[in-house]
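Hey, quick one: can you model this chain's 3D structure?
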Amino acid sequence: MRLQFVHFRLAMLSLFISFLFISCGEKSSNLVSNTKIPVLLDRNEKLRNGKEWDDVMNSYQKLKLAIQKNDDDQESKIRLAQLFIREARVTGEHGHYYNAALNMTDQILNSKSKNRYGLFGLGNQSRYSIISS
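Sure thing. Here's the predicted structure for all 133 residues.
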């Protein structure tokens, strides 16, 4: 009887460890569908400044669709990175948005497009020009 109890405990322990390794191998993704576009987090109600939040969401959707239609649209990727940096400053979600901006710039640097370096001049534009794009 004691031997069966020991075998049962070993089996349960090995089952627990295998589930632990399986669950650690899965990555939670903050990406939209199969593309490499990070999500725009919903703002706290206190940070929704009327039309400004609507403009940010609309800009995000336009840029996301432009990138999904044409993966070589480097300008939209830079504008999206700018939007993420601005959202990090507004919401305080630095961990999410700075990683999202880095993700977008990494996509530009890793692209095969010929004009990927000339677009970094867009980073000097006013932060408010993101919303108007």
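One thing worth noting: The CA atoms of residues 1 and 121 lie 75 Å apart.
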